[in-house]
Amino acid sequence: MADLFAGFGTQAESAAPAADAPLAERLRPSTLADVVGQQHLTAPDGAIGRMIAAGRLSSMILWGPPGVGKTTISRLIAREAGYEFMQLSAVSTGLADLRKAIAAAAGLRGATGRATAVFIDELHRFSRPVQDAMLPALEDGTFTLIGATTENPSFSLVSALLSRAKVFTLKRLGEDDLEQVIVRAEQHFGKPLPLDPVARGALIGMADGDARYLLGLCDDLFAIGTDHPLDVQRLAEIVQARAPLYDKGQEEHFNMLSSFHKSLRGSDVDAAMYWATRMLAGGEDPAVVFRRLLCAASEDVGMADPQAMVQVLTAWQAFERTGLPEGRLFMAQAIAYVATAPKSNAAYLAFDKAAALARKTGSLPPPKHILNAPTALMKELGYHDGYQYDHDRPDAFSGQEFYPDDIAASAPEALYQPNERGFEREIRKRLAFWSARRQSGR
């Protein structure tokens, strides 16, 4: 706790970073106008810009991927709005530390008359009790919260905290934004990056929207001490691409799965393969991809092509026996099959309708003629009386009623209504044939 409040109230006027500090720290913007890629929030007509112009901040949560400016914006917000500033990290701050910070904020407010902005990095790492402990201080204005998180606040923060703070989404930095970052690095060093145009574009791609990571790459390249432009191959030998953002247990996991499934449903085989490879590149278990494929084969292809499930299960089994890298062939084939198969959710919808009907009708008994009668008493009660064995009838169809009597008497609408796509076209013909047979009494 000795350094918990180090620099408290002076962050906005902190000394220049050391010469050996990371390049991202040395080039940290000094005004909100210098922040790239987040103008939708920081511009004068943006949500944060309007708060600063009014000189009054609301508690807020900055949500976005790493390296897009959450920490920088938080510091600059406090400075430009005239607030005292305290920085904490949810990784290293416990409940006792937070209570001391709240007390310090209250004391400083009484001493200086200035409101305090408390920046909490990795806010989602706070437990529920710690999040709850902040609520009274936010409620009475002891401090204004500026939280930063890379995870969806709806999943990671308590609802009471969300109701007291505005959530602002920071965008992933685009190529033009990252180009501005490179230019600033070049201005800092007084010379261009030693890259040819193609390699320069590749470097931006390696950063994957993360300015902090990009500046780290730039620092490495300037340290080489060469003015000869490097090509892509030489660049790849010197620096490493940023690992893709992918959290297998949180929102990114579900976003990728959703994108994959919807691409399959939308018959976009290219996009489906893209999202599958994105998940694998992020370290996802291939079994997760196959499970989603299997769900799509039933939910979205269904009886329009019953072979879709067979194809996926076979590919999955082959993958498990072979493994990577060869196993990607089986996954690709299964993805191609499901994405290009005719689509129908008729069976899925029918099951939902059946469930609703079952809930509505309660415990209606089945008709006696379809009940077995293993005892004499059951036979006396009429069990199995009048049952017709379908295989003894023409076309193996008796036309008997199988619903409970009360449902049958209401002439219910057909639950399963196949489409005119794929194999279900043939099923429609069969159902129409059987319906006609029932109506004729044959």
Automatic annotation (TrEMBL):
Residues 56-173 form the AAA+ ATPase domain. SUPFAM superfamilies: P-loop containing nucleoside triphosphate hydrolases, post-AAA+ oligomerization domain-like. GO terms for biological process: DNA synthesis involved in DNA repair; DNA-templated DNA replication. Keywords: ATP-binding, DNA replication, Nucleotide-binding. GO terms for molecular function: ATP binding; ATP hydrolysis activity; DNA binding; enzyme activator activity; single-stranded DNA helicase activity. InterPro entries: AAA+_ATPase, AAA_assoc_2, AAA_ATPase_RarA/MGS1/WRNIP1, ATPase_AAA_core, DNA_pol3_clamp-load_cplx_C, MgsA_C, P-loop_NTPase. It comes from the Bacteria. It holds the Pfam family AAA_assoc_2. Belongs to the AAA ATPase family. RarA/MGS1/WRNIP1 subfamily. DNA-dependent ATPase that plays important roles in cellular responses to stalled DNA replication processes. This is Replication-associated recombination protein A. It comes from Sphingomonas mucosissima.
